[in-house]
User: Fold this.
Amino acid sequence: MARRITVIGGGASGLVAAVMAARGGAEVTVLEHKDRVGKKILMTGNGRCNLTNVSGFYGKYFSSDEMSLKKIYNALERFGADDTVKFFRDIGVFTKEKRDGGIYPVSEQASCVLDALRSECAQLGVKIITNADVSNLRSVRGDRLILAAGGKAAPSTGSDGSGYALAKGLGHSIVTPLPALVQLRCEGDFFKSVAGVRAQAGIALYIDGKKAACEEGELQLTDYGISGIPVFQFSRLAARALHEKKKCEAEINFMTQVSEKDLGGPLEERYGGKTVEALLGGMVHKKIASLICRRHKLDSRQTVSDAGEKRVRKYIDELKHFRVKITSANSFDNAQVCSGGVPLGEVSDCFRSLKAPNVYIVGELLDCDGICGGYNLQWAWTTGVIAGRNAANDND
Ligand SMILES: Cc1cc2nc3c(=O)[nH]c(=O)nc-3n(C[C@H](O)[C@H](O)[C@H](O)COP(=O)(O)OP(=O)(O)OC[C@H]3O[C@@H](n4cnc5c(N)ncnc54)[C@H](O)[C@@H]3O)c2cc1C
Assistant:
């Protein structure tokens, strides 16, 4: 008799686990509490689905400790980006590589990834039951269960955190889930005046006064704080530090594109007749230049000569070291992923629960999160493939 495997959650990790388990000869059922599977997949990469990234995965993931990171990288060695590209090509999704190593479907449509996974499930005879909410694992039948219920990020897609309760019911502990790849809220009334500004900038995160991370890229200013890829990349560190009641600040360098060489010698000599606001406005976004002038109560007609070389240099220095206090991360509604979850130490190398041996735990439900760029879906594919394959064939 074929082994019966029930997958709870029809997201990225659950669908791939179902495919692999069915390929291994199991009779597979997917239980999904939304009215359709893969809702989050459709949202990924702004609807284009950044499937994975071939620029290497070391240093791109976070977890609670070094042992967990080792387990993560060990799994990615067993099923990594190239395997993902091949897996999808084999089910009819042809891909292309972008500059940063990000892999997308050639069609640039996330729907083609979901369609291919659904079609593969159908061909393999995987039974998909939607509108099936699992609130208690005792009521679920199957020789093996694969818990693929996701985290808490973007709950409207179905990942409402119920997976944590199911894992807890099995005796697992949970590292507090927090939003990651998310905007950060900051102190300062001035944000309203600069909302909408997009600027190429350097941005460093300071936790309790110590530099914890540094990124460069397109910073977006909103009416409540900071956003954009460079902010997303370290948002999980900030969210966790704030959760631990630590002080978080961001230091923005708006001047990454104007070097000392560009500034040349004394500014007063060349630009003395220009207003300070106009000079700064030639180096950074006009709204940022005005903000600096307002902060220093400069009259809009004040010239570089009026202000003097020393003061103008001080304003430029402020543009290089613009500090803001981070007060909170935006909520799970806005987050792309979730940090925290079931500790990697509580599952085997094949993601089999060490608390309940008939259960496998995969995807974002585990205590692993990656930076932007295809790494989170890769984690879902990796864990889904390894667990699905094993669940069909483990011998005890
Ligand atoms: C806007 C957005 C854009 C993103 N873009 C990218 C990107 O381009 N590249 C990338 O790598 N990552 C991206 N991510 C992250 C990526 O989508 C997730 O990391 C990944 O989908 C996690 O897969 P998962 O299977 O663990 O969970 P999910 O995809 O969240 O799937 C979990 C499934 O389980 C179901 N479920 C939950 N609880 C129950 C229950 N009790 N009973 C039954 N069913 C249940 C849910 O409805 C859901 O379908 C993005 C995320 C968001 C929100």
